Amino acid sequence: MISLFRRTLPPEPAHIEVRIGTTTYPVAVRRLASARRYTLRVRTAQRDIVLSMPARGSLATARAFADKHAGWIALKLAKLAQDVTFVRGALVPFRDVPHRIEHRAEGRGTVKEEAGSPPVLAVHGDIKHLPRRLTDWLKKQALKELQAAVTRHTQALGVKHGPVSVKDTASRWGSCSSKGALAFSWRLILAPPFVLDYLAAHEVSHLKEMNHSPRFWRLCRQLCPRTEEAKAWLKAHGAGLHRYG
């Protein structure tokens, strides 16, 4: 007898689990047409581990591969877990200078820089609002400095820009739309000032060259002579900025 119904296979899981003792560690799984072998890598911005496998690879083989490297997975995830939340006493970089977060009960929810060793970011008002208030303040500082840098660079190039905004993106530090709107990660305020300046120069250069051609890079280096240094800093330390907040 021929069945008229097709058997529906269960959807493939987006994650597999690796166990060490009583602890379970999640590992994201991605099938890639370009993959020729099974590999593991850390995604710092997403705070996870991803296992890449060939498009026609075996999920059982992927599980065995992950189990074989369980110790490495546990070590990397443990390091990723060391996030720094915005609480009293925590250290957070502000323009790449470590600042200690302190709470001040008086005041109306303002944030002020105070001298000290290390310097202090004093958050005033109800302590339950401290994380949000500090995040909002850092975003305002980032937007203020990015707007100033964008204005300086657009004047140097003789171009006009659209709205400038800050977001919390994991995949890119900045973007330039076809209409000239510029968006940046607010976390650039945590980085050295020359890195923030480079990202502003990078996106402003796109107002003339919407590509990454040699001409684009000449414009970018013209605006920001420390372009290569900034790119190297982001490659080495950029992902770590996502630990904060």
Describe the structure.
With 245 residues, the protein is of the alpha/beta class. The protein has helices at residues 59-68, 70-80, 130-157, 193-205, 214-223, 227-237; strands at 15-20, 23-32, 39-43, 48-54, 91-94, 97-104, 111-114, 120-124, 164-167, 174-176, 182-185. The protein has a 4-stranded mixed β-sheet. The protein has a 4-stranded mixed β-sheet with strand order 5-6-8-7. Strand 10 (174-176) and strand 11 form a beta hairpin. Helix 4 crosses helix 6. The protein is flat. The relative contact order is 0.10. The model has no long low-confidence stretch (mean pLDDT 91).
Strand content: 15-25%
Kindly provide the radius of gyration, computed on alpha-carbon positions and rounded to a whole number of angstroms.
23 Å
Fraction of residues in H or I helices: 25-40%
What value does the average pLDDT take?
A: 91
Q: Give the beta-strand count.
A: 11
Uncertain spans, ≥5 residues at pLDDT below 50? none
- What's the helix-strand series? EEEEHHEEEEHEEEHHH
What structural class do you assign from the helix and strand content? alpha/beta
Cα distance spanning the termini: 62 Å
Largest beta-sheet characterization:
4 strands, mixed
Globally, the shape reads flat
Spatial order of the strands in the main sheet? 1-2-4-3
Q: What is the number of helices?
A: 6
